[in-house]
Amino acid sequence: KMQGENFTGEDFSSSNELKLFRAITLIHNSKNENALQILNELSNSDPNNPYVYYYSGIIKESSQSSDAVNFFQRAIQLKPDFAEAYIKIGAIYEKTGEQEKAIESYKNALKVRSFPEAHYNLGLIYERIGKIEDAIESYKNYISTKPDYAHRGYSRLSFLYRTSGRFKEAMDSALKVLEKFPDDIDANYTY
User: Fold this and answer.
1) End-to-end Cα, the chain, rounded Å
2) How far apart are CA 155 and CA 131, in angstroms?
3) How far apart are CA 111 and CA 92, in angstroms?
4) Could you write out the DSSP letters of every residue in 133-148?
5) pLDDT tens digits, residue range 67-118?
6) Most CB within 10 Å of its CB: which of 8, 16, 58, 133?
């Protein structure tokens, strides 16, 4: 189970699953050293559990990004449809300036399932590297997959359209933002 999912007693059919749950709880309580110790034990007793490596990667991602990437890649080897692990790898590559690798990782996540944040993150990268039409397409995909947060995508679209001289589209996008957030400064500026 992933972060935010509810666990039931039926989910804990083995002591390894209980240990994993304990490690996740420790991570949420910022006790990463204790969690890592449990995860290291689990990598020996339950070496084919992708979540052991995923959560090890979460612990390592802020301080040891190359180790984190290795953990996430191991999780993907064990669970090829692990979209969240692809997303984590993409975010690490994005932070280290490896934009093409980040793009590849986010696209791999999208091959597994429609993951809204992958679309949004791709849009941000495409903006940074000057691929404006790809960024626009990514934000449109984000909007269609996460309508409750569409204002984020419309806000980015409004900015891109405005800076590209496409003022009608910029205004249409800004109006979508203003529907949800009437006090949004950038959208009001566009409108």
Assistant:
1) 44
2) 17
3) 19
4) HHHHHHHHHHHHH-GG
5) 999 999 999 999 999 999 999 999 999 999 999 999 999 999 999 998 899 9
6) 58
- Grouping H, G, I as helix, E, B as strand and the rest as coil, residue 77 is helix
Residues in the chain: 191
- Whether residue 142 contacts residue 161, with contact meaning beta carbons closer than 8 Å, is answered with no
Distance CA 75, CA 54 (A): 6
- For residue 22, name the pLDDT band (cuts at 50, 70, 90): very high
Q: How far is CA 171 from the centre of its chain?
A: 29
Structure tokens at 121: 């993150």
Give the Cα separation of 163 and 33 in Å (integer). Answer: 47
pTM of the model: 0.81
CA distances for 65 relative to 21, 93, 117, 129, angstroms: 24, 9, 20, 22
In eight-state DSSP terms, residue 5 is P
Question: Are 125 and 94 in contact, with CB atoms under 8 Å apart?
Answer: yes
